[in-house]
Every structure is written in structure tokens, then in C-alpha cells.
Amino acid sequence: MAAIVSCHCYHSCSSLIASRRVGARIPTNCFGRLSARSSNVAPVRQFVVPRCSSSPSERGQWQPHQSREEGRSFSLRECAISIALAVGLVTGVPSLDMSTGDAYAASPALPDLSVLISGPPIKDPEALLRNALPINNKAIREVQKPLEDITDSLKVAGLKALDSVERNLRQASRALKQGRNLIVSGLAESKKDNGVELLDKLEAGMDELQQIVEDRNRDAVAGKQRELLSYVGGVEEDMVDGFPYEVPEEYKNMPLLKGRAAVDMKVKVKDNPNLEECVFRIVLDGYNAPVTAGNFVDLVERHFYDGMEIQRADGFVVQTGDPEGPAEGFIDPSTEKPRTIPLEIMVDGEKAPVYGATLEELGLYKAQTKLPFNAFGTMAMARDEFENDSASSQIFWLLKESELTPSNANILDGRYAVFGYVTENQDFLADLKVGDVIESVQVVSGLDNLANPSYKIAG
To answer: Global pTM?
Structure first.
């Protein structure tokens, strides 16, 4: 009945080589088998997220243009390519270019892993969101970076960590004093007063953190650090003057999130006495995914997800969004037709997203995505495996990084549309199970950034 995800066999087959897990086995069908809500259904084709499974416990649909035989042949070939890719990544041997004339085989060899990795990946969702803002102000980034580095400093045992924290703080304070004028000049004129106020709070907060360090109060550092970074993020948001680009004509009339928004998702957890209820704060990034984030906010305002169950929770992803009935996504009652949205990916360094194609299909093998699958709780859209523009209502959260490749160089970036991150209580995502109920999803900020809303709230 509706779309859930299953990945290119690439992940499961090749990760077995990369991880050498005890007891791991290659599934008999690398594409997996998904089923509808009823257990007595024929094998179906799957919707996409990264997993290959032979379990019949998931859902999807066969596409009329591909037979079972064609799917089986493609699956085996994909597995063979995946194993070659994995060997190349693990051993450093260049991958094979297995050109056979189709869209997948036309891809050149995957670059060496050393080329793809430029440094330790950023895994903090709030840091990823700060870096994803469409600004170019070196002065504020030089304040941001040492404050973020306090997290690594705190990994040192005991009070010795405070010496490193103090160095980070000294560097950030010096950057703020030297670059304040450049920071202020980068503020949008309509937001300048608020930005200056935040800078004053940031400066005062740094003095407070200095006192915390002098008092050798290690336990108070992390909380103050997060407060300071919230001021930094606020200043950076105040540098964005309006929406920075035009959405393509064919998508202009769709719900668009022209900025950021935050939602609270309240989940009722069953059969867990230690966690009966949890509220997840999710920040949605419309600067880098206006169509995808706008579609979600519009569905939230329609209460589409309220009362819906978690439909997949396998330790790798948590997924929901498959409505009851035969529909595979959201059916707009005003048109009685399904609403689908395009694959939408912002490439780092570009001014607008690319639509309708994966970065692999575009030949952008070294490109970094602005919203990468780095953080635990990265939120993205599920879609039909062979239809880039087939996403509708099904969403998923990634629970761990790819075992084969690191963040910013994995098989998800550039293939699926990320549009937000869970910023509070994300660790509890791993406790969710199939059947747990989403009691409500509510927009708590940024609703005024939604353009072309199509929802009609009853009552």
C-alpha cells in the first residue's frame, strides 16, 4: 500500500565487507521484500531509504514498467557493483567502472575515500544548521568555530578539560572583539537591532563562561556553551535578508518554506515504562529545501500526522507517513489527486537547490550537500527507488551513520532530500517502535515563513 523505504543493495552488501560483523550475512534478495499492512500480500517493490532486507515486514509497490525478473537481475548486478565499491573503499583500490550502457553503469568509478573526506565530520545538528545558513561572513564563523570546539575539549577527562575550554573561549572572545564591526555590517538592515542585542548577550555570556572556568565548574560549561551558540546562531540568522533565490517556475505555487521553522512532535511510546511520552523538537530548513520543508509544514497544519503510528523502526531508520487505505501518500482533498514533490538537494557552494536528479546522476561525485546525513536524527523524505520526484508524505529519521562510508561521503547524501534535524531528545528516537503513536505535530515557530499554504484547518 504505501511507500516505505529500502535502499540500494549497495549499503547492506558492501557494509558486510566494511564492518566484518560477526554473524552478518548477505540477504538472499538485496532489494528486500516489502509488504502492505496486511501480511498476506504478494512481494512488492520498495520505497527508498538505506536498507536491504529479505524481511516481508515492510511495504511498497511494484511498478508496472519492471518485471520481477528484471528486478532480480538488476538486484544481483547492483550487489556485484556494491561489493567492488566496498573493496575499493576498504582497501583503497580504485573502484571498477562497469560500463554496460544504462544510467547506473554510466557512472564513473567512485573517487578514492581520501579525496572525499576533508576532515572530521560535523555531527551536531545545531552546528549543521548554523553552517547551512546562506551567509558569507568570516568574522562570525571565526567566533562560532572555537565555541563549537568546546565540545571536543570536554572529552578530556576531569578538570584538565577546562584548560582547553579556556583556550577555546579566549580565541572566540578575541575573534568577537576584532571582528565585531564586520559582523554588525553583515546584519540585514531590518534585523540589525536584534542582531546587535544578541552580540551584547554573547559578549556578556563569554564573561560568564570565563568565570565558570575560573571556578573550575566543569559541569556548568556545556549548558553555557549551548547558550552562547544559540546567540551566535541568532546573529547568523539575522544576516539573512529575505529569501535568497527563486524557486523554479513549476514549483512556485506549491507550499514553500522560505526560511526556518520548528515543530514539536509528541509521541506516545507503548510498552516502555521508562519512556511513556516524548517530545522531539525538529528544525526545518527551508533555505536549502523550501519545497520539501514547505510540503511537510503544510501537512502538519492539516494534522496529517496526528494519530499516525510509527511504521518502521529497525535500528537504522524510524519512518512514518503512510496513510491508511490504498493511497501511497497525501491525497489533496481539493484536487482528489496525490501530491508529489521533487527531489530537492542543495549543493554546498551553489545558490539554489538542484531538482529532479541525484548528485550521482548529475556527475557531482565530489559535491558536498548543504544538509548532509551527518547527525543522529537527520530528517529526510522517502521516495520510490526509481522515481526521483515521487516523494509525498513519508518521512524518515536516520539513527546512525552509514557503516560503509563516513558522513559527508556516504551513499545517502545527494540521493534523498534532507530538510531538517531533530535538535532535542533525538537520542530517544532509538527507543521508538513500530506501533508507537504520534499524538501531535505542531509548528512552534516559523509558520509565517510558509508561502502558498494549501491547508484548511477544520474547527
So the answer is: 0.76
